Amino acid sequence: MHTSVSAIIHDCHDASEQDRMNFPQILAALNAAGIEGYSVDYRRSTKTYFQPDGDSLELSFPVVEVPIAPVFDADAVQAAIREAQANAAGYTYRGFCEKVMAAGCAGYIVSLLGRRVLYFGRTAETHVEHFPGQA
Rounded mean pLDDT of 87-93? Predict the structure, then answer.
């Protein structure tokens, strides 16, 4: 992976943890760097970013001290997504992670190519969220 792409990934990764960039800004930066998607694994506290040629970069993030609920609650996951999209008062990415994990989300996959995010539970239940403006 080219060092400039790696630097953009690191910056976006840190910016999400520090609430310096919102989701659309992160997506725009990653897309401009040629990243086609990334996955978040709450069980391992990792994010893996993927390039079209198969190259990837895995980064860790601080452990979120919320247990992943055994039952996936798609409505609660969607409510957390809506709060993020509205940039609700007091919103933080860490708070978002805590809410979706408490709702049974074990991780999610972001597809810039497909313009959607697939959230999944411990027993593979899913919720697909299209980027705003998509059907």
Answer: 89
